[in-house]
Write a structure and sequence with these properties.
about 90 residues; mainly alpha; 4 helices; globular
Length: about 90
Amino acid sequence: MDDSHKWSGEATRKGDALDLEEGVFEKDDPKEIAASLKASAEASDRRKSAPYRSAMSMLTFYINRAGRNLSEERKTVLEKAKAELRKAFGHVP
């Protein structure tokens, strides 16, 4: 079964929470990923929680869904995007 037929792929593409920029998770710059997710979360009127929580949830969902199919390099970029997202929303520890 390819990704387009899995519920998780459908959720990423058409979920109620956010309208994502196409290719956002393929970007190489963690700051660009974070900025795009932040913009999507703040623009959404369908999300069920605060923009920060929605954006972080979508990023975490994507990382978990991709699982072992993510290269170490890609996983590193996405984990750095989490840190950038925290900064963008002022949630720096």
